[in-house]
Queue: 4 jobs
Job 1
Amino acid sequence: MRKVELKGITKSYDGKQDVLKAIDVMVEPGEFFVLVGPSGCGKSTMLRMIAGLESITSGELALDGKRANALSPSERDLSMVFQNYALYPHLTVEQNITFGLHVKKVSKREQKERCKEVCEMLGLTDYMKRKPRELSGGQRQRVALARAVVTQAPLCLMDEPLSNLDAKLRAKMRSEIRQLQRKLGLTMIYVTHDQTEAMTMADRMMILSDGDVQQIGRPLDVYNNPANTFVASFIGSPPMNLIDAEMKDSVLVADGHWMTPVTAAMKQKIGSGRVTLGVRPEHISLAKDSEPGFLVQVANVEVLGTETLVTFDFGEATQWIAKWPGQSSVQPGEQIRICVDDRHLALFSAEKGERIVCEPVPDAKKVSS
Amino acid sequence: MTLTVSGLVMVFPILYAFLISFMQGGEVLQGSLWPETFSLANFVSAFDRVPLLTYLWNSLMVSVLIMAGQLVLCSLAAFAFVFVEFKGREWIFYLFISTMMIPWEATMVPNFQTVQSLGWLNSYAGLTIPFFAMAFGTFLLRQQFKTIPKELYEASQIAGISKLRFFTGVVLPVVKTTMTTLAIYSFLTAWNMYLWPLLVTNNEANRTVQIGLKQMQTQEIASDWGVVMAGVVMVILPTLILLFAGQKRLQEGLTQGALK
């Protein structure tokens, strides 16, 4: 268990442009913390700075309350799993796992014992004498995990460890890694570009874009209360539907024909002018006869068995996606009448894309922690 | 078929030299291709005329020393150029590589003067040390080291493994094949050196085998080609053995990579 604290961490390679801008975050002991964002957002750089593989341009990194900026990677007492596993190709699985343990003054006998233990834990016992090239992708991934676990370092860093696996295996490893982390009580910092991984694994997550922190919070808080349009469209699959809307009298008008009434409080917050409206796909439903709704044309239908994704044209340039439970019989080209659940509308300022909170969100505190 | 014919054409000089080495006196000059009897007399007299064993031993020592020196220095230099970050690394590397464009003959005289002033004439030091730094070998190994994923180095940094241990424990085993290639290349180059040993040695105790061959050829006005060829066969034998032994090894290395 380890506490990791970043205070105003900044990284710049050329001294002009910052790839990470003043990151402040505290990772609690035993926490599964996920850094998520699109490629090139600086998440791997941040992880490598924590590992000591990349220098810190300014700011302070503290491990367990002690300044660690100048410590070498090995002095930080952590383990790391790389995207390409970084297994030594000429060594057997067993040698790969124990390679480097002698530095930590672990006796030969204990090395053997620890290796046996982690191999049993990860189901590698039958492969201990094999070379990495004789293993499948999933087995290699496990060896990399075993190598991180065997050091018994209290902090484990993972850099997109599952991106080389196929979808099925990825889901399995996701749950395995999470169980392992809980069992060993590791503090884990996990980098991924896959929002599903972030949502399913994280205790808390940080969404990064262009070196800026967009939001830090628990997965459901982030999902339900995205701080801005970037987070809204990045987290959730399919993403939140967004559209520009305009305040007219006491209704919001999107794309000239769809209107939604707003409360007086909302109106005051919004003022006059333009906003961005957001709706999660699951909050769009087929309108019943008695309900107010509006007509749209279906562009595509994806039936997934347990749910159906319906893409429809909304206005001239926008397509929205609705997610309905069950197997819908809607066909592409059909005109359907849909309605949107007003209670779940999200409003963002049109200029900066920031969330306009209209009514007190019950757990707003946790969102901004 | 074409391959066999061209193969025969290629191998003919060596084969002919081999056959001549068994021929008696006048047979060579009569232009016969096949010796009447396979006699070992030429080999005996080759050893009689020049101290061939001493020369062979010297050549072996010099070649092994140069090979070892080049492997150690080239691999360490390449390691620094790939895994150790320092200012002007690329620039220094290209400067290093550019020495490949300076012909060896141009540096021969200054090298000779240096060796002479160090008092290294007629010694293994003078014969070997000037060849230890090899731009080509460094270049070859650097390219090979670059194929090693950087994550391997980072993983060992996190584990706390020292640079030296990473070099000997990970880098060298991984590039074993290229190291073998370079070893064979530098051994053969050193074995075939003629001009430099001629310059820096002037007594029989330190000469190498290539000079011995030349001696055999020029000792008498009319060369006894049978004896010379016997000497040649003795000289190319280690080369051939090394090549065949190494070839097996190289093939192993290549197929290993192919079956990844």
Job 2
Amino acid sequence: MAVAATHVGGGIADHVHPEPQGFIRRYVFSIDHKIIGIQYLITGFIFLVLAGLLAEVIRTQLMNANGGFVSNNTYNEVYSIHGSAMVWLVVIPLMTGAFGNFVMPLQLGARDVAFPWLNMISFWMFPVAGLMLFSSFLMGAPVAGWTEYPPMSLQGEAGTSMWCAAIFLVGISSTLTGMNFMVTILKMRAPGMTLTRMPLFVWAQLATAPLSMVATTALAGALAALFMERQFGVPFFDPTKGGSPLLWQHMFWFYSHPAVYIMILPAFGMISEILPTFARKPIFGYKMIAFSSVTIALAGFMVWAHHMFTSGLAPFMQLPFMLLTFVIAVPTGVKIFSWITTLWGGKIHFTSAMLFAIGFVVLFALGGITGIFLASVPTDLHLHGTYFVVAHFHYVLVGGSLMGIFAGFYYWFPKMSGRMMNEALGKWHFWLFVAGFNGTFLPMHWLGFEGMPRRVAVYDPQFQFWNRVESVSSYVMTIAILLFFVNILISLRRGKKAGPNPWKARTLEWQIPSPPHYYNFKHVPTVYGLPYDFSEPLPYRGLDDELNDAPAPVPAGAH
Amino acid sequence: MIEKQSSVKGLGPGFWPFTALLSLLAIANIYYWAVTPLSRWMPTAVTVATQIDELFRVFLAVGIALFIFILGYAVFFSIVFRARKDDPPDALGVQIHDNHKLELWWTVLPTIAVILISWVSVRVWFPIQIASAATPAGLVVESIGHQWFYSFRYPGINGEVTGNMHLPDNEPVTLNVTSEDVIHSFWVPAMRLKQDMVPGLVNVMRFTTDRDGRYRIICTEFCGVNHGVMNTQYLVIEPKVAYDAWYHKWQVKNATASNALPQVSSAPVDLSDGSAAAGQVLFSQKCSACHAVGPFSQRIVGPGLKGVLHDPAHPNLLSGKPATPANVADILQHGLQGSYGQMPTQVQNALTDKDIANLVAYLNSLK
């Protein structure tokens, strides 16, 4: 049989279940990683809109030095939910749940993730947690920011306990996804795909997965303790009852610093796929990029107390945390240099995806450079808790992660939907977004230096001019994101048919139809090399039948 | 696969002139920060501020120079190596994978940069945070954060000083900061120093005052609904004579103030004008962690308090006394150690007599 002749991998990996037919099993409680990925994507974008609207409430309030758009208390609720939602309901689920789920098994040559049912359960925890988080507005939302430092969070209204429960739930989802991805990457690669032949996006997910698994459990412990203290009076954090407020900060940042890398490493992976594809040349320094992701992930566990330099650490403890934080600059610098060198000598096609990828490199670099100011104890003593910090983490999380999400979306949308995005709208989206973004967050650097603290509903009138510039710029950013969603809706209906490989990319997901079949690959391919050698034949065997009418794999007997 | 691989002469057209331009910009930037003190934008109130500013200027010089190169090359390569209309559709870039020499360099160079940055950081960090602990304490002042103001304690002045904080110029100072409620922060931007004020913990700031002036004290840790206006007090650094006059004024003013911790008074609380509305707010802040507004049996830590004064099934309080407003006030004042556990005292709960009157009025209104 012809099928058997091209079929090199074989064995258990070719085992296929029949595709479910009912709407519910197919699109709602699906166990297909591609559908789950798209579910994460849609849910994440809905929360992006909600949390983005909250951001506009923040910026509108700050138009005037004495506020007045909403009450101080509402303002505090709004920025707390904005931060929490953006971190836990937007960036982390989009980075791992959406793109990890859709792309990673395809790039591995796998038929699904290792634990498809667990994957479905992980997903469904996420919208539930999201609803819980937003429902806290009904009972008095948390006010102490996404960090919820006690004793302030002990004074919060009932919504703070709801916040604990919601974040706990989404944390379980994230932990399970990390475990699922780790096993998938280590055990389900197509034959011949050694670790050093994996696409860099998969490497990024491999570096992220243990962070999700290990760090999130520390957060779960902290949240459980805060919940118990609030609801049952168990004194973990209240100093008047013998607790320690700093205990929370250690537990929280032991999670939340690695979480910063959960939010950025997958974007590193996306950029490392997009740059070579549109520069038409191999990624520069494959091993260095892969290795630096792992280094960053490991080092990310050893720097959490740099968020606490002014909290009251023993002074000598500041030294190791400061120096270890500086060390992370080395692997990060290596990546940035490798990406820029990938541009060198290329034949660069400026698609929307490529623009966002190049924008990512530049804006993320700026966020990394301001990180040096915050990592060094003496300068951090001045900058901690000011708008400089707000500027820094928005450069990393918006200029970095969100730009990465946009780049990845423009890049993989044809694979997900079978249609192309509108490039003209995409370019408007890019330029408006970059202009609005820099207008919003660049002035925050000097506002922070000159004395504007974060989390304030009203501020000194001397800062009003730049705050107005920021607010107006943030509206430009909102218009840009509106264009993005318009673009999606138009492209879904009227977009040009994409075909299997519109970008002439070389990773496995582009060698099969768009959107891929339920079983991904008719036959699991065999891999012979890295996917980035544009002048060589594709390093795969067993893909001959993917794009023709050859019969789909026969489902195994009824289970 | 048929391909048109591009070939590039040397490092590509215009690489060296452009690199020269970027270097020029970077050097101009470094020169600018070398000659521009940050006191142009913000005065320096203490001696360490100048050292911290020097570190800022090193970071600004190096950081912006680095960014000039990253942005410059990203844009330059994008323009020089863009795909052109007359390229064949399958044109490829230069097929290079890596260059070990180059990669070694850009691992070694950032490592050297990191060592340099570490060295300059530690050089400033060590005297502020470590060596200063071994020097004489100088003038020891305490600052206590409250929702939403700062108070101060000076040796030789009874009780607490409110309003602005005064210090003599050219004086070594040890400032111990703490909080009585939630976490606040003591930041004077002109000092470039900040410490969180953590309840139950004393954090120490050491500095030597330098320039006379009025410098704003700002809270940077979120501390509740009025966090944004916890910035109205000033640190006043002034000549010794003026400081002594201010110090003497407070000594006189606080002559009879007590330094002792507040005590529970033995006199019963006057319950005549309690406000149930104010009591309800207090209840949600101070009581609801342990007491539900529900029937007696709805226990969180202590019993539910709905109808505590109007429950025929429980004519007596847990103290064994009849359920009257005066006896409820007595528990709020003195606490209770009983079968249900520990009810804190008035002082532990930070309740004023007026608070107790309001709470009793509120509890009395629950039927």
Job 3
Amino acid sequence: MSTVSETAPRGQSARRMRIDGWRWGGRAFLVFMLLYTALPMIWMLLTSIKSGFAAMQFPPQWWPDQPTLASYQKLLDPQNSVGQDFLRFFWNSLIVSTATTILSVIVAVPAAYAFSRFTFPGRNFLFFAVLLRNMFPAVIFLVPLFILMRAIGLVNTHGSLVLTYLTFGLPLAIWLLKGFYDNIPVQLEQAARIDGATRFQAFVLIVMPLSAPGIIATAIYSFIGAWNEYIYAYTFLSKNEQLTLPVGIQRFFSENSTDFPGLMAASFMMSVPVVVLFLLLQRYFVRALTEGAVKH
Amino acid sequence: MTIVSGKAEARRRLQSARPDVLRKMWEHRADYAYVLPAIAVMLVVIAYPIYYTIELSFFNTPPGLQLRDKIFVGLNNYTAILTSPVFWQVTLNTLIWTAASTFISFVLGFAAALALHRDFFGRGALRAILIIPWVISAVAASYIWKWIYHSDFGIIGAVLVELGWASRPPNFIDSVSTVLPSLIVVNIWREFPFAMIMMTAGLQTVPEQLLRAAKVDGANAWQRFWHVTFPHLRNVSTVTILLLAVANFNSFIIPWIMTGGGPSNASHIWITHIYELAFGRQRWGVASAYSVLLFIILMTLGYFYVRALSGNERKDGDA
């Protein structure tokens, strides 16, 4: 930096002005994006602490006159029926998402490792076939999968959801992890094997720890995907006690369509687990993308 | 070389090639065990449904999915789709939806990644806030925005009235002319962070030395971006745009929850339309034919996706 200014004293102020223009433009843009991103969420929070009556006013109360946590109490109270439903949906979502996450890590890790290390015939074909899953919308698979699930007796079970969610988490998981394994030197494993480890031991003791960020990123991605999934859960599940959160909330509020504070409180609480999880682990996610997907 | 010897040559090559592949597959038999679980899940949940959808698209099916009673109708489902005016309206909606969402999300995400590339106080927090819409459920997002757009108590309408720009709150999602743009705004809100994450990751791979060298050579900020940064990001940009395009093409939740495709089909896109045909009106055959058409379009996009991805591979020389 200093060399530049020493060697080019003339035109420096012009350049600084131009750079400043870019920088101020960038700042203004970031402020705009911050407002665009945050204002809807702030409005959600403000609405969720209003009473039903206070929310339905025109002009609106920009700041709630009498903030109340009634909506949250109602949703989290196991004594009344709304609270029972909400907590059950929450629990269902948690079970389905956790099962999906564990299974997709178990399936994706060996597959990604094989795609990275081995050169068996059909490797590229299989790799891209797995990736192509990303291309297809849920709707294409809905009817046949519904029939398939009915045939193997999984309709109205959480198993049908876990099995389906596995497939849309897998492609990105395998892709990310493969990038990771590509960057881990084979020599490390070879050294371990010379020291007497089997291929499996070398994999578990050397490769797995080194790819931990990738595995964490994969797990977050699967969990968030399963937590937020709507269309399969909407189609496969019909019994009230099995619904996951997105469907449960939708079904509940199509019956109580004017309870906007309750709806906003439910939306907020549905978002909390995934947002917290993501914020805690986001550096792994960006790192995994950098090392796994982008850098090749 | 005569034709005969050419054929013989080809046959000999084939014969020598086949045992070779089989032998290789046998030698590598243990390797397949690693990918087998992934492939098995994929086969059950993907290959079978695709086959089934194609079959069903040639049949007329009675409601209730009593599939034993289906009637073969040849290509009737396809001709019915292509001659219906709704098809063309929905296709136009889908094109506008996909193109606008993808382009604007990418530009906003890329710009945000660039603006956040230089370190400053609070950068991490700002980045985290910008990512949140991508993480929260599309169902929650749809309800939040439905409330914001509410025709009586929505905050945007109230602000417009307070500022004197409108005499009464506008009907954003109940009017044919504004519904699609309004939904696109919601979709971009949810999609731009993905572009931002991808491009942030991409930016970290641009060599610092090159940028510094360009600066020493007198390149200004725009020239450094256009001649150094951007070429480095071509691959990740392609992949990001394709993934966004596919995701937008396939989106369902936002239009479905916010408007259900209405008013008068103005916000129906392909996926919501297929869903309504299948599960609303129980016309499985027509819905399957729609899916097959969709499938063909996506395969075409998928070809470019694979090409973009394998472009990365080939440089390493292992593809």
Job 4
Amino acid sequence: METKNIMIVGVGGQGSLLASKLLGHLLLNYGHDVKVSEVHGMSQRGGSVVTYVRYGDKVYSPIIDKGEADFIVSFELLEAARWTEYLKPDGVIVTNTQQTDPMPVITGAMSYPENLVEKMRALGLNVDASDCLSLAAEAGSLKAVNIVLMGRLSKYFDFPVEDWKQAIRECVPAKFVEMNLKAFDLGRNH
Amino acid sequence: MSKQLMLGNAALARGLYEAGCAVASSYPGTPSTETTEEAAKFDEIYCEWAPNEKVAMEVAFGASMGGKRSFCAMKHVGLNVAADPLFTISYTGINAGMVICVADDAGMHSSQNEQDSRHYAIAAKVPMLEPADSAEALEFTKLAFELSEQFDTPVFIKMCTRVSHSQSIVETHERIVPPEKPYIKNIQKNVMMPGNAKKKHPLVEARTRAIAEYAETSPLNRIEWGDRKLGIITSSTSYQYVKEVFGADASVLKLGMVYPLPDKLIREFAAGVEELAVVEELDPVIENHCRLLGLNVKGKDILPLEDEYSQNMIAAAFGRNVPTGKKLDDAIPARPPVMCAGCPHRGMFYLLAKNKCTVFGDIGCYTLGATPPLCALDISTCMGASVSGIHGFNKALGKESEGKTVAVIGDSTFMHSGMTGLANIAYNQSNSTVIILDNSITGMTGHQQNPTTGYNIKGDPAGKIDLEALCRSMGFTRVRVVDPYDLAESEKVLKEELAADEPSVIISRRPCALLKYVKHNPPFIVDKDKCKNCKMCMKLGCPAISIHDGKAVIDKTLCLGCGVCKQLCKFGAISEQ
């Protein structure tokens, strides 16, 4: 099969490492060649971060380039807008509608662009936007946004739901499994 | 044997384990840090954080001399610090195998420069292997120990951000511990004074020739014949991009050993293709070598010297089609890394900016103090340079600068190389004010212990250096400790020490807000009726505070309740819930 490309973008500290770990686990279990490229180090805290997940028969490059992403999963709206150029023409942006002001907006040097979902759709992009923060809160923790997003992403794959849930059980500490399974269901069924 | 997805650095650590490595000593530095962190998860390997890279390399050398396989890791700039032992360990050689990991950071994801570590391999005449994914990181590490022992030399494993911090599939094997090599006294081999070193140098040259001969047929280097119109010599992550772009549309000479290079293999490859190119990040090291061999080669004439590469960049350089995507017309504000909400450094930087201090900065999270709106750093170069630099500045300017200039340095960086600069201030007596930003951890690299924290790499209790006692023992009579969450007291002390007519140290002490044991207050809130939109709180550059509809707003998902903003609000609009 041709290599598939998933980008996970967000603000450093939002939990993208768990999302990529989950995907890596799931895809490896299907026998794919998998590469995951991450951002490490506290210095990225609060900054724009991107994680690449690629899978297929044989994956060479660990990174995803412009025009290559099948999916962009975004933890924050501005970050989805930042990376649109990386999406394939038939790709999908799965984004949280949460907005976190970056420092140039906080200092007043720039403003946070308005109506980003509508503008992305006006470009012809396929945007799946939802308030994942509220769904995470409903599941029991604001930190579960990453798993809510995985639930939403799962709708675009043919993989059995149980396989996703098994990957969650393998990647999350035991005491958080129930909460995260709920977050996954809320994302998937929303 | 099992297959799993593994980070490049973790795979390297697995290689250490499987090769029977017994001792690892490193200083953390992105992107090298996880090699040693992961190695520390194996009880069979003694692991430690050393105060700096020079110490780490010398510890590894000592362990090798003692007869056990050893390891040290550092980022590219850390190798500058360890260069002194490196060049001479190359002469002495080793006893048991010794492997040095150096991790470059093309693209400067978390670094102050983009130097190419391959120059060190050439300059120190130490062989260098360069894995291109996790599986190679594991295998090359094991092979590096064998080569180290076979050729009596330390061996480099050169990583880069995309190999260190990418996960790919590896196969793991059992650990095999080689027999210990008893230490045998050998002054001619191991004491590098001129008479002995003079005899060693020709042996080092002969060794390099022997390793180059090995490289000709080593499985580390391989030709993958494809279309012969174009032949590309490449290594590391660049190999992956080349294969992604060309597949079988080009022939590839994949180099796993980048020093010394296999002349005959390169000539054979060049002779088999119509056009020759080299794809390598940063400097034209392989390309220049090809030119010395008299080969006509493309390289930096079509590819940049700067930044990391990608598949599209390489495709474009070779005139191939590049996919594109759609972009919004809106200006998208950048999102640079910021000091976290609740960061203890923020209060001190606010005071330094408020008092218009000239600030010599250093390497750590607090380098972010240079970013708007604080803009509180003037100069930042390398580890420890703040403490040495302020001394020179004050010696040059005297009273003109002494009362308004400070150096800021973190606890770990101070241990790394700030102490020697402080010794210079104590010895040569400049009236300098040094602020140690003691957040009780090595923060920027992701929370590693250091000699001031009282814990070792495994989190077990360890020796603890008392910063106050250390500074006093150097002769500083003015050593003050402040809590940077307390702005009034911190400012009073700052002013007193700047005014004092002798050198002083201020220890600005509060643990990193992200440490698990640090308890946070509930988020603060803004009373909208009291907020006058004066924007005093915005001067802190706290990511939790923004202005919406003319009123300050605190993001409750980010605020850790440090209370620094409350101290700035003249209208009492900010309070605990």
